[in-house]
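REVIEWER CHECKLIST
Item 1: Sequence provided? yes
Item 2: Single chain? yes
Item 3: Sequence as submitted:
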Amino acid sequence: MKILFPIFFILTTFYLNAQNLFPVKLEKCRTERFCLDCGDTKAGYEEQEFSKLQGKLSDELNLNGIKGAVMFQVLVNSKGHACVLSHTDQSKNFITKKLVKELNRFKSWTPAITNGKIEEKSSINIVFKVDNNKITGQIERVDKEAFKKSFDKPNSPEIYNKNYVYKNENLSNYKITVWNSKNSNLPNNWNDHISIDKNGLIWLTVSQGLVTFDGSNFKNAEQNITDKGKYFAYQELATDNNNVKWIYAKNNIYSFDNDRWVKYDSTQIGINSAYSIINNSKTGELFFCSKNGITILKDGNWSKIDKSLYKDLPGDRVSFAKRDSKNRIWIGTYDGTAMIDENNQVTNFEKSSTVLKGKCITSMDEDENGNLYFTLYEFDRKNKKQVNNDEGIAIRDVNGNYKQFTTENSGIPFNHTTSVLYDKIEKVLWISTDRAGLVRFDLKGNWENYHTENSDIPTSYMSTMTFDDEGNLFLATRQGLVKIERK
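Item 4: Structure as written out by the authors:
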């Protein structure tokens, strides 16, 4: 019997949301967010104890006549506990099953440390080889530059909706402009977060960097008060009503007022990280969504929303939160979605029969009539290996009625959506996905799907998007910055 595994180039310093690297995905790990082999000191194991494990496996397993290798993705948390996320063996071999069990039981893992702080969760890759009746294992670190080169190419669309016929009648009405590392001075094409400030200046995160764009040139705009060290990624980005830029980077919250950078003491504000940062322009509140609930900044004062204050919240790990025009706060947690109304009463949708049950909202927008639009994440999927899950988007009308749109009942091409925006000029929804490109929905039943194979959009992976003051749509993608404007 022979176990085979493919060679993967994995970028070891990106933070991902529930990302399995290898084809066989396991179900037991909680993986909302982790970094890939990150840290000044990377996650690993105590060498002596790991050697004992290899000896134990060689003694207990019947390895006669077996030769091969398998790669495991192991998630190591801050307490030194681990869980196997995925592996490369699709043959269901008894050796692989045994290795998964033993890796999960192994107690001598060491967590990753960045800038003196222990990472909450870090993923590492371990390869086990069988030869000469012996099994040996070791961590497989990866050449980052090799991965970047292999990754820097357009993603082809993966259209899971096989029933809808896309006519794309409005595509010709738009001019699409792309800035990338080949046709501009953009440092690299890995763009995940975007914000347009009050002066019309575009702020954009790039791989391990931060730039501004004035429509002609990209300029380095990185903070200058923390030593970047081996790795420094800008992971969240927002602009508040006072034109202050807010950023989460390397276990710190930063702000920039166009003059100087400020780093915030976690002991004072209560957080040192954020899943997302959302500006509520009508109320002047800034929401920092994190594993500790929602931290709110308004008029220089910090406050908090969590389960200790609101017992009916489904959980404290908040992915997204935003106020609507009726002063209600919509909250997406990795344990369910909730809403705090204008009277401070909590609705926990895990206790409802609406389409929000079992879902975490990950973005939201509102039209001029008060209809709400959500992107959805199914946080407790029954089939962990399924790619096209019960997600899509949901619409809540002004009367409180909900409707979910998926590949089963609409023209949405893929159910995992990354953001939604309502276009007040054209009265349409723009929906971004990470596999099927950009979606235009006219709210009357007509869906259009723009991607790298039918338009000038350079990839089918889109991280997020925003409008400028003129209504032009900007996309942060893994192949550069994209502008979509009406002709």
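Item 5: Key structural point noted by reviewer: The chain has four helices and 40 strands.
Item 6: Recommendation: ____
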